[in-house]
C-alpha cells in the first residue's frame, strides 16, 4: 500500500509572529520556517507503517513556492521515499490545495493519505476534510491512534468530550493530532541520503487545476493587548485582590 | 436569503456552543434557521425551537446522523445549502469535522473560527495562534463559517417559538461507521462554558496531584483544564487541553498553575477576563498575561488558596 503524506512549510512554532506596520500581513522576513508540527507527526506515522511492513512506499507532497522543497527534504530525511512539489504562490487557499491534492491522489492512487489536522500559520483545520469530500473518501480527523485492519482503518479521534473511534473504508484520509506519535529526529546520514531521493516538481497546469480566489485578505492587525498585571506577595493578597479588586470571588 | 446554523447536540439536549453560533449568525442577516441532524433527536429539536431569534428548525432524524459522521453530515448540509446565503456552525470538534466537507462540496471556501462579523461577507479570525487577527472578505455565493464560541454571547435558550419542519434526506455515504467512544465523565461545568477555570501544567508532577486543583474547583464551581504537557504526560485526558490546538476558553477567571505560558497555551486562554498565574519561576512567560501573578511553589500555594476562598 502506498501512503501519501502532505507537508506544509510554516513559521517555526516557537516564533511569535509580528504584524507588519502597514497591516497588510504578518512579517515573515528572516523568520525561522519549519515543517508544520502536525505534518511531522503525519510523516512519522507513515514511516512507521512502512517500517511495520504495512506501507510499501511513502510519498510526500507540498504545495507552495520552491522554498517548500526544504520541508519535503526534511520529510525525506525522516524516511519518506519520494517527494512532489506543486509550484504555487505562498499560502494558497485550502480549497485550491485540496483540488491539487485530489489530482495527485488520482495519479498516485494511495491506500491512505495522512495530513496534519491544522497548519499552525492559518489555523484553518480544513484541508484534509475538503480533500476527503472532493475524493469522496472517508476521514478520520484529529487522530490519536490509527490501526489498519484489512481493508479498513480504525481511527481514534480526539473530540471535545473525550475519544471517538470510527472505522473507515480505505482509501481514507487521516488527519493527525498531537498525541498520535512522537516524531523522531533525522540522523545526519539520513539527511545526506534525502538529498538524493527523487523530488518531482509540477505546476497546477500540469495537473489540470485552475486556481481560484475565494477570499480576500483585507487586513491583518495585532490582537488586543492585555493590560499589564501585578505580582502579589502571598496567597492572602491574591485572595484579597480577587475578592475586592477584580470581584471575581 | 436565510442563514442556516447547524446545531450541536447529543440528540436530547442542545449544546451551549449552538447558542453562541446563533448570535454570530444573527449578525450576518435576519432569517435564521437551525438544523438538528441526529437520530431520535426530537427533544433536541424541541429545544432548538425555543431558541430566541430562530425562525425555523429543520429536523433530519435518521440513523445515518446518529453520530454526526462527517461523510453523511457533509452531504446533508451541502444539499440543504442551496437555499441559504450562510452556513454556520460552532467551531467544536464536530463542526470542524464536517463543515469543510460542506464547503468543498459547494466549491466554496470555509472561514474557520471567526471571532467577529464585520458585515455579511467580511469577518475577523485569529491566525498564528492568535498573534494576529485577519480581516477576511468572502467572495463566494454561499459562506461556510465556523464560529469561535468565546467571541460571541450566547443567544437566549428560551423565548423563541420556531416552526419545526422535517427533512427527509437520508444520506448514508456507507464508507465510515462509528465504533465506540470514551467520554470523560465529570460533574463539573464544561471548559468552554465555565465561568471559572483552574488549569494545571507539567508542574503538577502527576495526575493524582490534580486533586489539589479539583478541591479549589469544587469550592468555586470551576472547570479543570490542563496544558498540553500535562495531557501528553498522561496526567489527565485530552479533552482537558486548553490552547491553540485544544479548547479555546474565555472565563471570568482563569487560574494557571504550574504552566509556563507557551504561545500555544496562551492562544487558548488569553481572552479570559482575569488571569491568575501561580508558578515558582518568576521568569515564566505566563506572568506576562496574568493580572495577578504569584511566585510560589504550587504544592504550598494551592492548598492555602483552597483554605482561604
Ligand atoms: C503544534 C503544537 C501545538 C500545541 N498546542 C498546545 C495547546 O493547545 N495547548 C498547550 O497547552 N500547549 C500546546 N503546545 C505545547 C506548548 O508548546 C508547550 O510545550 C506546553 O504548553 C507546555 O506545557 P506546560 O506549561 O505545562 O509545561 P512547561 O513548559 O514544562 O512548564 C511547566 C511550568 O511549571 C512550573 N512549575 C514546576 N514545578 C512547579 C511547582 N512545584 N510550583 C509552581 N510551579 C511549578 C515551571 O516553573 C514551569 O513554568 C503545542 C505545541 C505544538 C508544537
Ligand atoms: N500548501 C500545502 N502543502 C501541503 N500540505 C498542505 C498545504 N496546506 C495544507 N496542507 C495540509 O493540510 C493540513 C491542514 O492544513 P489547514 O487546513 O490549512 O489547517 C496541513 O497540516 C497539511 O498537512
TrEMBL record, chain A:
InterPro entries: ET-Flavoprotein_bsu_CS, ETF_a/b_N, ETF_b, ETF_beta_N, Rossmann-like_a/b/a_fold. GO terms for molecular function: electron transfer activity. This is Electron transfer flavoprotein subunit beta. The electron transfer flavoprotein serves as a specific electron acceptor for other dehydrogenases. It transfers the electrons to the main respiratory chain via ETF-ubiquinone oxidoreductase (ETF dehydrogenase). Residues 23-211 form the Electron transfer flavoprotein alpha/beta-subunit N-terminal domain. Belongs to the ETF beta-subunit/FixA family. Keywords: Electron transport, Transport. Its cofactor is AMP. It comes from the Bacteria. GO terms for biological process: carboxylic acid catabolic process. Heterodimer of an alpha and a beta subunit.
UniProtKB/TrEMBL annotation, chain B:
Keywords: Electron transport, FAD, Flavoprotein, Transport. PROSITE patterns: ETF_ALPHA. CDD domains: ETF_alpha. FAD binds at residues 202, 227-228, 241-245, 258-265, 279. Binds 1 FAD per dimer. Heterodimer of an alpha and a beta subunit. The electron transfer flavoprotein serves as a specific electron acceptor for other dehydrogenases. It transfers the electrons to the main respiratory chain via ETF-ubiquinone oxidoreductase (ETF dehydrogenase). This is Electron transfer flavoprotein subunit alpha. It comes from Neptuniibacter caesariensis.
Amino acid at each position: 500500500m502506498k501512503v501519501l503524506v502532505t507537508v506544509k512549510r510554516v513559521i517555526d512554532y516557537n516564533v511569535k509572529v509580528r504584524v507588519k506596520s502597514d497591516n497588510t500581513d504578518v512579517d515573515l522576513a528572516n523568520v525561522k520556517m519549519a515543517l508544520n508540527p502536525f505534518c511531522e507527526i503525519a510523516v512519522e506515522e507513515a514511516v512507521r507503517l512502512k517500517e511495520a511492513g504495512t506501507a510499501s512506499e511513502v510519498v510526500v507532497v507540498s504545495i507552495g513556492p520552491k522554498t517548500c522543497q526544504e520541508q519535503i527534504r526534511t520529510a525525506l530525511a525522516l524516511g519518506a521515499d519520494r517527494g512532489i512539489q506543486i509550484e504555487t504562490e505562498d499560502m494558497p487557499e485550502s480549497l485550491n490545495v485540496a483540488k491539487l491534492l485530489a489530482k495527485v491522489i488520482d495519479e498516485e492512487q494511495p491506500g491512505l493519505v495522512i495530513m496534519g489536522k491544522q497548519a499552525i500559520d492559518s489555523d484553518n483545520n480544513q484541508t484534509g476534510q475538503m480533500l476527503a469530500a472532493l475524493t469522496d473518501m472517508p476521514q478520520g480527523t484529529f487522530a490519536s491512534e490509527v490501526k489498519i485492519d484489512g481493508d479498513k482503518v480504525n481511527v481514534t479521534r480526539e473530540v471535545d468530550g473525550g475519544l471517538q473511534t470510527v472505522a473507515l473504508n480505505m482509501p481514507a484520509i487521516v488527519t493527525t493530532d498531537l498525541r498520535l506519535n512522537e516524531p523522531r529526529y533525522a540522523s545526519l546520514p539520513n539527511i545526506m541520503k534525502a538529498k538524493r531521493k527523487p523530488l518531482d516538481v509540477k505546476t497546477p497546469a500540469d495537473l489540470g487545476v485552475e486556481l481560484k480566489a475565494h477570499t480576500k485578505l483585507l487586513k491583518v492587525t495585532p490582537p488586543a493587548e492585555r493590560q499589564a498585571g501585578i505580582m502579589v506577595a502571598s496567597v492572602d493578597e491574591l485572595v484579597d485582590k480577587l475578592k475586592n479588586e477584580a470581584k471575581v470571588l | 436569503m436565510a442563514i442556516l446554523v447547524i446545531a450541536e447536540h447529543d440528540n436530547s439536549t442542545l449544546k451551549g456552543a449552538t447558542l453562541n453560533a446563533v448570535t454570530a449568525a444573527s449578525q450576518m442577516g435576519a432569517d435564521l434557521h437551525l438544523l438538528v441532524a441526529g437520530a431520535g433527536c426530537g427533544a433536541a429539536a424541541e429545544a432548538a425551537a425555543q431558541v430566541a431569534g430562530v425562525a425555523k428548525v429543520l429536523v433530519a432524524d435518521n440513523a445515518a446522523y446518529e453520530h454526526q459522521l462527517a461523510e453523511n453530515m457533509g452531504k446533508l448540509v451541502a444539499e440543504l445549502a442551496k437555499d441559504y446565503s450562510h452556513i454556520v456552525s460552532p467551531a467544536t470538534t464536530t463542526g470542524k469535522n464536517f463543515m469543510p466537507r460542506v464547503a468543498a462540496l459547494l466549491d466554496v471556501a470555509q472561514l474557520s473560527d471567526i471571532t467577529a462579523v464585520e458585515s455579511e461577507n467580511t469577518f475577523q479570525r485569529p491566525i498564528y495562534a492568535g498573534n494576529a487577527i485577519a480581516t477576511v472578505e468572502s467572495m463566494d455565493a454561499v459562506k461556510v463559517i465556523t464560529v469561535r464560541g468565546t467571541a460571541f454571547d450566547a443567544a437566549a435558550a428560551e423565548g423563541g417559538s420556531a416552526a419545526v419542519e422535517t427533512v427527509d434526506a437520508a444520506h448514508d455515504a456507507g464508507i465510515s461507521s462509528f465504533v465506540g467512544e470514551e467520554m470523560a465523565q465529570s460533574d463539573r461545568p464544561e471548559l468552554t462554558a465555565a465561568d471559572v477555570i483552574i488549569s494545571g501544567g507539567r508542574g503538577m508532577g502527576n495526575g493524582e496531584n490534580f486533586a489539589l486543583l479539583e478541591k479549589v474547583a469544587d469550592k468555586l464551581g470551576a472547570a479543570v483544564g490542563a496544558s498540553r504537557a500535562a495531557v501528553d504526560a498522561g496526567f489527565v485526558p485530552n479533552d482537558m487541553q486548553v490552547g491553540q490546538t485544544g479548547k479555546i476558553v474565555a472565563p471570568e477567571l482563569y487560574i494557571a498553575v504550574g504552566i509556563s505560558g507557551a504561545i500555544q497555551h496562551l492562544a487558548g486562554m488569553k481572552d479570559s477576563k482575569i488571569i491568575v498565574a501561580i508558578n515558582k519561576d518568576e521568569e515564566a512567560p505566563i506572568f506576562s498575561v496574568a493580572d495577578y501573578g504569584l511566585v510560589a511553589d504550587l504544592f504550598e500555594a494551592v492548598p492555602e488558596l483552597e483554605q482561604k476562598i
